[in-house]
Amino acid sequence: MSQIDSLPPLRDVIDSHGIAAKKSLGQNFLLDLNLTSKIARLAGDLSACDILEIGPGPGGLTRGLLAEGARKVLAIEKDSRCMAALDEIAQIYPGRLQVINGDALEINPLQYLTPPIRIAANLPYNVGTELLVRWLTPKEWPPFWSSLTLMFQKEVAERIVAQPGSKAYGRLAILAQWRCDARIALQLPPEAFSPPPKVHSAVVHLTALPEPRFPADAKKLEQLVARAFNQRRKMLRAALKGVAPDIEDRLIASGIKPTDRAETVSLEQFCTLTRNLSAG
Ligand code: SAM
């Protein structure tokens, strides 16, 4: 294994700072610094960017991001046991790592960051999905970030990149793909983590598009898609009953058969239907 910095191996850092993994915080740490550097490279050119990292833990990905040349990393970590380890990293990269001890769901990081901003994280499943949905549904587009490089359990990663006609296709795919290019950049087996989780994981890389792929009002599209997939086994004429008195006609006018199910409707068709419904 090649050295990426002058700090001790992550296993020693975890031992010396007493950061035994806690289940309650979803702690499955990456210990291979070559792997964390590889994930950092997946985030793209970091040298001209500020990076927001959520959940740095003992700092494996943080070290990868800094070794790969990130201009600045702002790391938000809930577990105060990690602060001393993160401080050691800050000392060998003067002025480039700022750490906040707090809950990423409650902190607005914008005041600490200068664009362009990329986001990178290996987060617990629940927090990761909630933050992803927030990042994908900002008040204005383009958002404050230019790319997201995020570790998820494989099943969630597949939902983000899913295409119509597959079981994984749903609200998350539409939210992600409407205004981003989304792809699975790396798959990881449980053994890549300590302790190993029960499931496989994958890194998803999303790049914000300057404009949505197809025009539609964001709130209306989100509501329509949530409703359509809420009863994904039902035909759309039933699932969307009550959305408009003439919903069958509107489906047909949008190129959708009223007997189709949500999981076969393309992103473009959902946008067309949203515009049709907005037209009154
Ligand atoms: N990034 C490290 C790595 O790759 O080894 C740690 C990953 S571990 C899966 C998730 C990290 O997120 C833990 O360090 C955990 O304490 C932190 N975390 C969990 N919930 C959080 C929250 N709401 N806000 C900030 N950090 C959180």
TrEMBL record:
It is an enzyme of class 2 (transferase). Keywords: Cytoplasm, Methyltransferase, RNA-binding, rRNA processing, S-adenosyl-L-methionine, Transferase. GO terms for molecular function: 16S rRNA (adenine(1518)-N(6)/adenine(1519)-N(6))-dimethyltransferase activity; RNA binding. It catalyses: adenosine(1518)/adenosine(1519) in 16S rRNA + 4 S-adenosyl-L-methionine = N(6)-dimethyladenosine(1518)/N(6)-dimethyladenosine(1519) in 16S rRNA + 4 S-adenosyl-L-homocysteine + 4 H(+). InterPro entries: KsgA/Erm, rRNA_Ade_diMease-like_C, rRNA_Ade_Mease_Trfase_CS, rRNA_Ade_methylase_Trfase_N, rRNA_adenine_dimethylase, SAM-dependent_MTases_sf. Its EC number is 2.1.1.182. GO terms for cellular component: cytosol. It is found in: Cytoplasm. Residues 35-210 form the Ribosomal RNA adenine methylase transferase N-terminal domain. Signal peptide: none annotated. CDD domains: AdoMet_MTases. S-adenosyl-L-methionine binds at residues 28, 30, 55, 77, 103, 122. Specifically dimethylates two adjacent adenosines (A1518 and A1519) in the loop of a conserved hairpin near the 3'-end of 16S rRNA in the 30S particle. May play a critical role in biogenesis of 30S subunits. Belongs to the class I-like SAM-binding methyltransferase superfamily. rRNA adenine N(6)-methyltransferase family. RsmA subfamily. This is Ribosomal RNA small subunit methyltransferase A. It comes from Thalassovita gelatinovora (Thalassobius gelatinovorus).
